[in-house]
Structures are given as C-alpha cells and as structure tokens.
Amino acid sequence: MKSRFILFLVFCIVFALLQIPVIHQFFTNVQTEVVAWLSDAEKYRENKGLEALRAVSKITFPELNSSQLAYLEDVTSSTQKLQKFYQLYCIGDDKNPFIYGVKMNYFCEQVALSGLLQGH
Fold first, then answer.
1. CA 54 distance to own-chain centroid
2. Is 102 helix (H, G, I), strand (E, B) or coil?
3. Could you give the 3-state DSSP secondary structure of residue 98?
C-alpha cells in the first residue's frame, strides 16, 4: 500500500513538473537525443553488416574486375539497395550482367544469412 502511494506521488510530481515550460522543453530535448542515438546505433549495426558482406565478397571472389567490384560496392552501400538487389536477382528471375552463376548463388546466400534484410 505504501509503495503504491509513493508511486502515485512520484507520478503527480512528474506530471506537475512537466507543466513547467522549461522542464517540458528539457524532456523533449532528451527524448529527441535518445531517439537520434538509437537511430545511429541501428545505422551502425547495418553499416557493419554491409561492410562485412563486402569483405566476404572481395575475399571469396578475388578475380572480380573493377566494374564488378564497383557494382558490389554500390549494392552493399545501403540496406535498401541490398533489398532491391535481393528481390530482383535472388528471389526474382532477372539476370544480372555483373554477377551470375555460382557467384550469384553464393552472394545471395550470404545476403540471406547476413540478417540485413530483416525489417525491410
């Protein structure tokens, strides 16, 4: 019973403080910063995953020419581009002029295993 009263009292104090413009602005700024930080943390995870996918591709396919490497760099520059690539060439039936055959199958497998397509 005592803990409920304390919890109610804390709630009332916080509510009353939020009615003061300066404190309201402070909490709004804190909320904005936390959301930005969480967004940056998610982007960091995605960028590390994309970087790892590029590294695996370069190691696995050392014989790729400069245009093929540039193409892979572009495809792995964002999760949106990777998703589009995966839909067109791994799931869809389109033919890719840069990567094909065993290399395409392996790259599609690595993309699927990377976890970068979840949530997109």
1. 15
2. helix
3. coil
Q: Give the phi and the psi of residue 98 in degrees, each rounded to 5.
A: -100, -40
Is 101 in contact with 82 (CB distance < 8 Å)? Answer: no
**Taking the CA of residue 78 as centre, how many other CA atoms within 13 Å lie in the half-sphere pointing to its CB?**
4
Taking 3-state DSSP, the helix, strand and coil percentages for the chain, each rounded to the nearest 5, stand at 80, 0, 20
- Say what the pTM is: 0.64
- Answer yes or no: are the C-beta atoms of 99 and 72 closer than 8 Å: yes
pLDDT (tens digit per residue) in 43-59: 888 889 899 988 888 88
Query: What is the Cα–Cα distance from 75 to 70, expressed in whole angstroms?
Result: 9
Token pair for 74: 């572009």
